[in-house]
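Before relying on records like the one below, remember that each one covers exactly one chain. Contacts with other chains, cofactors or solvent are not represented anywhere in the record.
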Amino acid sequence: MPVYSYRARTKAGALVMGERTADNKQMLASMLHREQISPLSIKEKRAMFGKSSMGGKVKPRELAVFTRQFSVMIDAGLPLVQALESLSSQSENKSFKKVVAAVRGEVESGSTLATAMRAHPKVFDELFTNMIAAGEAGGILDTILQRLSSYIEKSVKLKRAVRSALIYPCAILSIAVLVVSVILVYVVPTFMTLFAVLNVPLPLPTQIVIALSHFMTRYIVFILIGLVMLFFAFRSYYSTENGRYQVDRVMLKMPVLGALLRKISVARFSRTLSTLITSGVPLLEALDVTGKTAGNAVVERAIQKTRKAIEQGRTIVDPLKETGVFPPMVTQMVGVGEQTGAMDAMLTKIAEFYEDEVDAAVKDLLTALEPMLIMFLGLVVGGIVISMYLPLFTLIDKLSG
């Protein structure tokens, strides 16, 4: 979405400036009016080298530390502007330092903290700013910041679990491809010269390996170009709404990995929605934010369908069941939480359960994959080596006979 810079006045008459993403100027104006801010001017920012708003990449861990320190300062009674100034001066990330300084400047000029942070969507996402707005409205900003830091830390832990589940098999497979390519391109041709000199008959396994070596040495440039093109084609397809949905749907149906990804999605959904509801964000708005931060297009669509059903006057349980994405235990517990008025507590319990499930599933997956991948690597490399020595064994048998 394009980024717009705007000048506006709050209900109290204070002048505020900032940047925000929106589909168009009209949508941004509507968003500002809903926040009781009257826009004076809205201009689209021109992107430079693919970047359209202040602030580069900020690591979730940095954001968690910032949020935790911010909550401690506010809890200690430090004025908002002074706390932001202190946090800006001690940040080691230059890009993040500029963003915090800009937020401090906007707050100092009369803007609310949530509005000032919304001007920097690359750093402070919708979940963050919505919770800050709820904290400011309820006078519990320090509590909200503590919840936010806990949420970000748990989110980082969940991402680390996913990364550890994927990095190991990807590393082993990459090593296998690299080793096999080196053997086929550099080692096998040496044996081919030797076989030609000795004029020995070649068994079928050796012929297959030599044919693969011929193919690799002749077409390696085209293979590499093809792989790069395939990568960019997949990336382009995945960037489309339908492409992302189809890929995520296939991923969720994969054996073993699909079950793990579903647990991760349920844990993220429960943790995010619980955090937002506990912080006082209205359910419809909380579902909207949760859908956008789901990390899976299938889950996102399911949440958006549930949100529309609630808008039409239905309860949350039946639409969740109808999506077929969430396990029966989740929908039953959400239903109990809705009936008893303790949905946030129920969602927290679901999140904790599935986060433990993800940890256990990742450990089991790595335990099962390690011997399988080592065996695969050994069979592939060992098979190629043995196939190249078979003609020599035949020759030795003839000479000894």
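Residues 51 and 98 are 15 Å apart (CA to CA).
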